[in-house]
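pasting GNAT family N-acetyltransferase for the record, 168 residues
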Amino acid sequence: MNTGLPPDPSEFTLRAPQPGDMGQIVSGQARLYAQEYGWDWTFEALVAEITAQFIRNFQPGHERCWVAERDGQVVGSVFVVRQDAETAKLRMLYVDRSARGLGLGRHLVAHALAFARGANYRRMELWTNDVLVSARRIYEAEGFRLVEEDHHHSFGKDLVGQVWSLDW
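structre below
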């Protein structure tokens, strides 16, 4: 259960990606969202495309990925990508079921925000769907505000996409 306290660093390690991690992140997210939200295999294509673009277009100093590892297993991740000179984009926040309740999601987002601020971005944006309630709570707690909503049919479901933004 999430106590609201900072996560115990002994519970997991945050590190840069290593060979094989990206495939695990794509697979883990695809399986998790299929199990929890009934999303189909087209979601896997989206996360695979985002991951491939990150690898191909990686800009050190402007972009970053953190992989959360626990007992030798990938249990979470988050990406920061450059949208433009002033805007960072938070991508693919993921926490495996086995690591829930440890504050890992909050910890990953905090690292992403600190990196974006240190890279001299002026804002961070993200796209999510309204059904991802736990993630949205993290964004709201960090001060993100909802700036756009759009109904769409994706991943085999009728969804409400949302754009959130945080300026500093």
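The CA atoms of residues 82 and 88 lie 5 Å apart.
The chain is about 35% helix and 35% strand.
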